[in-house]
Amino acid sequence: MTATTTAPHRPGGRVDFGRTVWVWRTGPLALRVDRRSVLVCAVLAAVTAVFGVLTLGSGSLPLTPAQVLSALFDPDADHRARLVVVNWRLPRLLFALVCGAALAISGAIFQSLTRNPLGSPDVIGFASGSYAGASVVMLLLGTADYLAVASGSLTGGAVTALLVYLLAYRGGLAPFRLIIVGIAVGAFLSSLTSMMLLSVSPQQAMLAATWGAGSLSGLGFAQLGPAAAVFAALLVCSGAVVRPLVHLEMGDDTAAALGVDAQRTRLLATVAGVALTALVTAAVGPIAFVALAAPQIAQRLTRSCTTLRIVPAALTGATLLVAADFVALRVDVPVGVVTVSVGGVYLAWLLARQYAGRRR
Amino acid sequence: MTALTTRPARTPVPARLEVIDASLGYARRTVCEHLDVTVPDGSFTVIIGPNACGKSTLLRALSRLLKPGTGRVVLDGRALDSYGTKEVARRLGLLPQTAQAPDGITVADLVARGRHPHQGLLRQWTEEDERAVADAMAATSVTDLSGRPVDELSGGQRQRVWVAMVLAQRTPLLLLDEPTTFLDIAHQIDLLELFADLHRTGHTLVAVLHDLNQAARYASHLIALREGRVVATGTPWEVVTADLVEEVFGLPCRVVPDPVTDTPMVVPLARPRSTR
Amino acid sequence: MKTASPPDAPTGAARDVPGPRRGAGPVRRVRHRPLVLLAALALLLAAAVLSVMVGARPLAPGTVFDALFHYDDSDAHLMVRELRVPRTVIGLVVGTALGLSGALIQAFTRNPLADPGILGVNAGASLAVTFAVAVLGITSAARFVWFALAGAFVLTVLVYVLGSIGAGRGTPVKLTLAGVAFSAVCGGLTSAMVLKSTATLDVMRFWGVGSVGGRSLDILPVALPLIGTGLVLGLLSAGALNALALGDDTARALGTRLVATRVTVVLAVTLLAGTAVAVAGPIAFVGLMVPHVVRWFVGPDQRWILPLTVVVAPAFLLAADIVGRVVLPSGELRVGLVTALVGAPVLVVLVRRRKVSTL
C-alpha cells in the first residue's frame, strides 16, 4: 500500500482529492480508498469486537473477556465455557453482525435510490408486509414455529414489494410514485395488522408484538448457515450494483452518458435492497432503524458525499446491532427496541456535534 | 486529411455519428420525422435553430438517451443500440443540461466519476485513471480547485468541472448540450476556446449553441434545424447567410465578416415597428 | 424538491429541473380552484350530516332532527346527543388539525414523505401515555389526554432545541432528522415498557389506534383554543411557505423572515398535531395523504392548499369513521384503521392517474 503523497510527482499523474487517499495497485487490482474511511472502518470493527466479546460473556453464566477469548480460540479450554460461548451465544452474535450489515446496505441502497434520507426498504412497504405475513401465521394460523413464521414474513414482504412495484409501474418507474404507492400499501397493511392485534387475546398480541420488535433470541447455527450463505451472495450483488447506482445521484442523463443503464440499475438495486431486508426480517423479525440510521451515521463519520459506501455503512450497521444486542441482553427486551433507542440517541448526538463543528 | 487509411473512404470525410431516416420524440409528441444528420469525423459540429426546433432532442438521440421511434443512429459504422452501455460511454462523452452534483462532493471526486466506463469492480483507480483525471483538470484549469466541494464554486467554475468530468472519460467524441448557458461572456469564450483546442487535438465535437455568432466562429460544420427538419448543413459561410437566418429564426439581418476571425457574423436589423 | 410542476418527463432526473416548462395542467388547475373548494365544502357538509345520521342503530332522519332541536330524553335522542354528535364534532376538530398540520409540515420540510408525526408529536404522546399506564397504573382514557398533550409538547420542544443548535439552525432537514432521532428513542422506550407487561400492551394496543368514538366533549374547552391558535398561525404562514418553497435564499430575497416563519410553522404543527393525538390517539394517513391529493387538484400554491386541506381532511376523517361504523357496527373498526384502509387505495389510484407533482 502506498500513500499518494509519496508517489513520484509527474505531470498528469497525481490528483489532489483534498484529503489523504491511499492507492493500492497490484496485478489486476487497482483500488483507491480514503484514509479516513479506512480508519473509521478499523475503529468500527474494533468496537464491534469489544461488544462482541462482552456479549459472549454475558448471560446466566457470566464470563470475563479472557475466559471468552480462551473459550473461542483455545480447544482445551473449560468444556462448559466452550459449550456456552461457541454453541449457544456465538450464533446470536453472528446473526447480529450479518443482520446489521444487511440492513445497513439495504438502507444505503434505498436512500440513494430515492434520494431521500428518509428512504428505506420500508418505503416500498416491505416491513409492514412481512409483519402482516408473520401476524397472519402467528395470530390466525396460531403457530409460533420458527420456520412457519419466517416463511410467513418472507411471503408477506415479497408479495407486498411486488405489489407496490406493479402498482407504481407505469411506462417506467418514477422514484416518487414508488414511494407514494409504498407508503399507501404499507399503511394499508399496518392497519390490517393492527386489526388482527386488536381482535386477539392480550397474550397472543404480546407474542406478535415481540416478534414485531425484532428479536435475536433463540437462534442457533442451524438457522445461521442458510442466512449467512444468502447474505454472502447478496453482498456480491450489492457490490456490483452500487457502482452504477452512485452515478444515478447525478441525474439519469449524466449517468447514462457514463454508461449506466438507469432503469436496469434501479431494478437490480431495488431487488438487492429488498432481498437484504427480506433476509433479516425472515430471520429475526423487522429490526427498526438500523437501515435508516446506519448509512447516515457512516456518511457523517467518513465525511463522504454519498450514503452509498457499503463497507462503512455495513460495519456501522453491524456495530449498531451488536452493541444494541449487548444492551438488549442486559435489560431483557427484544433487540429491535434497543436499536431504535440507541440509534436515535446516536443520531441526535451526531446532529448536535455537527452543528457545533460548523459554527466554528 | 489525416489517418483515413484504416477504413475505406466512401466520402471525403467519413461520418463518426449518423442519424438515418429517424423519427424522434417523446410519449405524446413527435419532434422530428425522417431526419438525416451526419457528424463528420474530426469536425466541430454545431447545431443551431430557434427554441423548440428539436436541437436537444437530436443531441439526446445522438447520445442514445433517446431511442428513435423509427430509423436508426449509427456510431462508427454500427447501430448505436448494438453497443454495450459502457462501450458507448468509452467512445462518446456527453455533457447534459441536467447534471446535478451530489451534496458535498469535491471537484476531484466528481471528475473521477468520469472514469466509470473504464473501471470495473477490481480496477477502480489505475494509473491511467489518475492521469486522465489530472489531465482533464489541467485542461479545464480546475486543478487548483480539486479538493474543494463543487457546491462552493461559481457557475463558471462549476461548468468547467463538469466539462472536466466529460474529458476524463477520454472519448474521441464529445456531445455538449448548451454548454455555455448561465455563463458570462468571458467564461463562454473561455469554454469555447477550450472546445476549439480539443477540436484541434483531434476530438470530434457536437454542440448545441444558442449564440449564432459563437457558433459561426467556432464550428467547422453547422446544422441548422427548424421545426424538426434540417434546413441547411455545411461550413459557417455556407449556412450563415442573411436569407437562411431570416428563414430559420425569422430575424431580418445582415451577415458581415467577423473583424477578428473572418467568420460570418450576424448583425440583426432593427425590426420595423409595424410588425410588433 | 422544487415547486415547479414537472412536465411528463420520461426520467426521474428531469423532474428536478426547475423551469418555465409548464404545460396546460397548472392553468386548468388554477381555473378550477373555486369549484374544487365549493365541492369540498359540500363534501364536508354531507359527511357531517351523514355522521350524525348513520350509526350502529338505524334512526329515521326525523328522529335525529328532533334529537338535535326538540330533545326529549328518549334513548334514541340520548344516543344522538351523547354519542353521535360528540363523535362528529371530535372528528371535525381532529381531522382539521391533522390535515392542516400535515400540509404545513410537508411544505415546511419540502419533503412529501413528511407527516405531522415527524417532529415527534405522536412518539412523545405515546411515550407519555405508556408511562401513565405502565408506571403510574392509570387506565382511564380520559386522563390519558393530559399525558398525551404533555408528551407531545415536551418532545417537540426537545426536537426544536436540538434542531436549532449552531449555525445550520432550524433548517428543515436538520429538524426532520432531529425529529426522527427523538421519535426513535421514544419509540424504543415505549416498546420496552409495553413488551414488559401484557396489561400495558393490552391498553396500548387500543390507544395506539386512534379513534373518535367514545370521547367526551369535556376536552374541547382546552383543545379548541389550542387548535384554533394553530389554525390561525398555520393559515397565516401560507404566503411565507410559498416563498420558502423556492429555496431559503430566494425566500429571503422575497422578504420572508426565515426564522420567524420556521418558529411559527413548528408551533402551529405542534399545537395542531399534538392536540389531535391527545384527543383521539394517533391517526395515520390523514395528514400525509390529504395535502397530496389537494395539491394535485389545485397546484402548488399554499394559499389554496392550506385552506382546502382544512376542508377536505375532516371530510375524509368523518367519511372513514362512517365507513368503519357501517362495516363493523360493533365499533371494532376504529377510524385510525379505516383512514388507511380507505385512503390507501384512493391514493394509489390517484397517483397512477395523475401527473405527480413532487411538492
UniProtKB/TrEMBL annotation, chain A:
UniProt keyword Nucleotidyltransferase, yes or no: no
Keywords: Cell membrane, Membrane, Transmembrane, Transmembrane helix, Transport
Name by which UniProt lists this protein: Iron chelate uptake ABC transporter family permease subunit
PANTHER family per UniProt: FERRIC ENTEROBACTIN TRANSPORT SYSTEM PERMEASE PROTEIN, FERRIC ENTEROBACTIN TRANSPORT SYSTEM PERMEASE PROTEIN FEPG
Lineage of the species this protein comes from: Bacteria, Bacillati, Actinomycetota, Actinomycetes, Kitasatosporales
Pfam families registered for this protein in UniProt: FecCD
Taxonomy, superkingdom: Bacteria
Principal location class: membrane
From TrEMBL, chain B:
Keywords noted in UniProt: ATP-binding, Cell membrane, Ion transport, Iron, Iron transport, Membrane, Nucleotide-binding, Transport
Highest taxon of the lineage: Bacteria
Protein name: ABC transporter ATP-binding protein
GO molecular function: ATP binding; ATP hydrolysis activity
Subcellular location: Cell membrane
Alphabetized InterPro entries for the sequence: AAA+_ATPase, ABC_transporter-like_ATP-bd, ABC_transporter-like_CS, P-loop_NTPase, Siderophore_ABC-ATPase
Organism for this UniProt entry: Streptomyces tagetis
GO CC annotation terms, alphabetical: plasma membrane
Lipid bilayer topology: Peripheral membrane protein
Domain spans labelled ABC transporter: 17-252
A GO biological process held by the record: iron ion transport
SUPFAM superfamilies: P-loop containing nucleoside triphosphate hydrolases
Automatic annotation (TrEMBL), chain C:
Compartment annotation: Cell membrane
Lineage of the organism: Bacteria, Bacillati, Actinomycetota, Actinomycetes, Kitasatosporales
InterPro entries found in the cross-reference section: ABC_BtuC-like, ABC_transptr_permease_BtuC
Keywords: Cell membrane, Membrane, Transmembrane, Transmembrane helix, Transport
SUPFAM superfamilies in the record: ABC transporter involved in vitamin B12 uptake, BtuC
GO molecular function: transmembrane transporter activity
Chain intervals with Low complexity compositional bias: 12-26
Predominant location category: membrane
CDD domains reported for this sequence: TM_ABC_iron-siderophores_like
Family the entry assigns: Belongs to the binding-protein-dependent transport system permease family. FecCD subfamily.
Membrane protein topology class: Multi-pass membrane protein
Region annotated Disordered, chain positions: 1-26
Stored Pfam families: FecCD
Segments traversing the membrane: 35-56, 88-105, 117-138, 144-163, 175-199, 219-247, 259-284, 304-323, 335-352
Identification of the protein by name: Iron chelate uptake ABC transporter family permease subunit
A Gene Ontology cellular-component term: plasma membrane
Domain of life, source organism: Bacteria
UniProt-listed GO biological process terms: siderophore-iron import into cell
